[in-house]
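Today's session is about reading a structure prediction critically. Students often jump straight to the picture, but the first step is always the sequence itself: look for stretches that repeat, for charged clusters, for runs of hydrophobic residues. Only then move on to the predicted structure, which in these notes is written as discrete structure tokens rather than atom positions. Here is the chain we will use throughout the hour.
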Amino acid sequence: MLRTIFGFVFLLLTSSAIGQQAKQLAFREETYDFGTVDENKGPVTHEFVFTNNSSRPVRILQVQASCGCTTPGWSKEVIAPGKDGFIQASYNPKGRPGFFNKSLTVTTDLEANPIILQIKGQVTNDEKPSPSDFPVASGNLKIKTSSFNMGRVYLKDEYVVREFPVINAGTEPIQFTGKFVNPSYIMVDVQPRKIAPGERGNIKISYNGASKNKYGFQSDNVEIETDDKVSPLKSFSVYATLEDFFPQMTAAELAKAPQLTFSSSSLDFGNVQENVATEKEIVFTNTGKKDLQVKSIQPNCSCVTASASKNSLKPGESATLTITFNPQDRTGTQNKAVTVYTNDPKNPVQRLTFTAYIP
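Below is the predicted structure for this chain, in token form.
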């Protein structure tokens, strides 16, 4: 009996060790939530610590932040096998109320695929609100931005909730009637329902990604009814970037998963003629162990179209992605991108960039 117990404990410890060694650069966490961040107390900073589990020294080549509001830092020295290094993220909340979700793309000399780290939190301001801090007016109601950005939303059946501060810049209370015009996958609420002159409230937006069921950048509109004499009906845009959610996977599960690999992450169209569509192809391969499914392909410009020769690839199979660029009266250097969404759990969202020059 005692031998059985020791054997079971050994199996647990071995499984844990294997899971921890699955990644050559093992981070203690890849997402950090700052929680509530006071806008008036300056930048907040977190260090992502990792261990080099590979068999050779590793150097961090570059860390690129998704926003100018985030300042990265990292270990500049070579990290020997078994030693620790760090990636630092410093976020400046000034003038950025509400929820934030930012990413850091880490490139090393260990492997081609970058590592994606995330920071998130909710920026608040407990000081007496000043109308100058709310530059966008909708009648007597003033807000900090002209739209509500939900950030990243996963395509799963639960609501992501964000709050956006507003202020009554008028001389009379603003009453919210409780009537909202919104898509079925977006819920809207305002607290308090009556905002006194000079006081602040919050518009709460709840977004269900599974009900929206689309990939990439999405834009919607909501309307809020009030008794504001200047402008009773308030209309706002709601933005979100949707992608699949993948639960934590074991090393064995990741080894058996599909994996998308492009022959290159960028293209050069060279010189193209004005108003003449030009095509380029790039090869992609399923280098994983299960079928790869291309879920969506999203260009970042109406001047770009993209399609895959196959949307389902068996392990080891390749296909081509055809990108068509139509200058549409544009001139000079153009930098465009195409984002590809797949069921690759390690890199479900991959972005291809290309340049072109129109004389």
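Discussion point for the tutorial: The chain has three domains: 23-124, 131-243, 251-358.
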